[in-house]
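Can you give me the bound-state structure? Components:
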Amino acid sequence: MRHRSPRHRSLKSDPKAWAATGALTVVAVAAGAAWVASRNPRWRHDGRRRSDMPTLAAGRGARVERTVTILRSPEELYARWRDLARLPELMAHLESVTPIDEKRSRWVARGPGGTRVAWEAEITADEPGRLIAWRSVEGADIENAGSVRFTEAPGGRGTEVKVLLSYELPAGRLGEAALSWLWESGDQEVREDLRRFKQQMETGEIATAAPRPAEAR
Amino acid sequence: MRAVCWHGPRDVRVDEVPEPELINPRDAIVRVSSTAICGSDLHLFNGVVPTMESGDVLGHEFMGEVVAVGSGCRTLSAGDRVVVPFAIACGDCFYCRERLTSLCDNSNPNASMAEALYGFSAAGLFGYSHLYGGYAGGQAQYVRVPFADVGAFKVPASLRDEQVLFLSDVLPTAYMAAENCGIRPGDVVAVWGAGPVGLLAIECAYRLGADRVIAIDRWPARLRLAESHGKAETLDYEELPDVVEELKQRTGGRGPDACIDAVGTEAHGTTLDALYDRARLAVRLGTDRSHVLRQAIQACRKGGTVSIPGVYGGLLDKVPIGAAFAKGLTLRMGQTHVHRYMAPLLAQIEAGRIDPTFIITHDRWPMSAAPEAYRMFRDKADDCVKVVMDPSR
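Here's the bound-state model for the whole set.
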């Protein structure tokens, strides 16, 4: 924008001068915000590191941490999550989960561009009403480890559900493009999955604005 | 079916679109018998609300007859006559249990969009942008109503559409605006904007015990209505641009005890700060005009309340937060928790204590002429205050 406000015109009476001053302020504030964000560990690409987070060997891989409060008891929420075969109803990227025995299960998920990724997982901790933790076993397309913890919220506000997840593609399996897609989308996927879990558990359905079933999801 | 669709700023059309169908268990399909244009629809019409898409069906003030219900919708059956709140609420989350239904956790499918902008997402709304869920609205012959078991509110056959239609939005909105003022006997309440919400807020403020109500506007027909029907004192800000000083003079130097901003983001003004708002918007340095809010904060007495039913969407500039702080003001705002007001307000209507039909200036307007109605309402042509449309015509 060209700004040609003559000096004798006061700032007060000239809306354009006001606007130019505002533009400079916005630029300065934006630069400041970017600097502050760069200093904040939450905004760094490597995410937060936590001692209670399940990690892959040598701390490799992407990490996601997401928490949501659901107005249901820890026992109900644990039971729904522990029913692994029904998890794809809540988690959009999952195609199927097939339990093999009490501990092991086979997972198939949709990857980028119509690809499909599969892995076998074993449950490494299982405390009814409190915690489920898992880890992929040898030969997974995506190496991953995670946990979901159910903690009663104060004041009858339901249950705090915390998901911790770390994952990595073994080198060369799906290529760099897929890896970068996962880095970008993992956090958003977990966030949306938890939202659907909450909607299903609180309301019995998953909200959609589609006008007809054909357009839903 | 026919529906009023948004195609861009100042471009709404009546399109032929497919009829909605049941999707979720708690859905109902409603055949619309009456549908109104809201002042907040003008923000969409003027293109100041982001995330609208071409073809979006407008409208959030509607009522009609239930024609289909999902398997989980046990409170309704086909043939029920219902009014539908503009905000969609699940009834089950923490906020719904607290009766703060416009803050529902579960009804916005695009919650992540709202979270990025506002930190958290509030309820999904009918016909009010994708930020608020992208739901098709009620200026249509049929509407899919999600969570209809807690949303669609049955009304008795003894009352006409016009008497109960405004339970969907403007009457509860006006009531909550007045309730938020915390009115005590002897209070003076100033109301900016004598449109449908402002006019009804005058009535609600008196009902809640206000001693005097002062309405501020510039349209003669609206000021006349505020005087003749609302029994309010009026202030034409084009004649008396120093509204703050004028209000002080009329209140013994104290200032109004409560101020209601029933205008919101597209405030019009004649003073320097209003010009500044327009310049700033023109170069896209902000999204909202705050001229009325500034006046309300400035005019309000020490320790008073500023109640904001007018819609704001983005960033406000030059809001005198220092004045609000120095005077210890209370600011109350937000989308209306319509669900909690419907039953008590229906009882008032049935008892003949509230009759909101006086705001209607254009009744049974054919929906096929909706674009003309939007322009007329925006320009206040033909002294337009409220248009109620007939979707069958």
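A couple of observations. Residues 194 and 222 of chain B are 6 Å apart (CA to CA). Chain B touches chain A at residues 18, 20-26, 72, 90-94, 97, 105-112, 124, 133-136, 144, 146-147, 272, 275-276, 278-280, 282-283, 285-286, 317 (CB under 8 Å).
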